[in-house]
Design a protein that fits this description.
193 residues; mainly alpha; Lysozyme; 11 helices; globular
Length: 193
């Protein structure tokens, strides 16, 4: 079964921004760029069934504020990820300034020096010196998310329709659980699941 990811499909699960033109324009641009990148990378990571696609897209939609932001907006500008914090240590930040430099980017918010370093090696990309590429290059935004998805074996959890566990592994908790659940309901409706 070959499910094409189209801009229309992505728009159908994202909440629309009618009054905020800046967010609406960002959402439109991101969706136009993400759809072909998803069609390129999803088959390489076996994200090809309706349930796998639905769970991946629901989490991505929530992580990116309905596809409006490919970079997270940390409450303290990334200082909450500095090496002297618990969050910073958890994501492998080692040097002062790592927190703001290696904030979450991409579809599933690649975060922390260690994670950027690991993906630099896997993808043969210099994400340590140029971490912003994960947000500005749609192919990298999708591929880093697919690598994370694969490393956590989330296809198996998607096959079991285990929303709770997927959310925990993607988010490290349950932030935005309702938004994720609503996005999953919308995409399941679109895919007739």
């Amino acid at each position: 079964m070959n499910i094409q990811i189209t801009p229309e499909l992505l728009h159908s699960i994202a909440l629309p921004y009618r009054s905020n033109l800046q967010k609406r324009d960002a959402q439109n641009a991101n969706i136009q760029g993400l759809a072909p990148a998803m069609n390129c990378w999803f088959p390489a990571y076996s994200i090809t069934t309706k349930l796998r696609i639905a769970h991946f897209l629901a989490q991505s939609c929530a992580e990116t504020a309905d596809f409006t932001a490919m970079t997270e907006y940390p409450a303290r500008g990334g200082k909450e990820y500095e090496p002297d914090t618990r969050a910073g240590q958890r994501v492998g930040n080692h040097f002062p300034g790592d927190g703001p430099k290696y904030i979450g980017r991409g579809l599933l918010h690649l975060t922390g020096r260690d994670n950027y370093q690991k993906l630099s090696r896997i993808l043969d990309e210099n994400l340590i010196e140029y971490p912003e590429r994960v947000a500005s290059n749609y192919s990298l935004a999708v591929r880093t998310a697919c690598e994370f998805w694969d490393s956590k074996e989330l296809n198996k959890l998607a096959d079991a329709d285990n929303f709770e566990r997927i959310t925990y592994l993607v988010n490290g908790g349950y932030n935005g659980k309702e938004a994720r659940e609503n996005a999953l309901k919308r995409i399941k409706g679109m895919l007739h699941i």
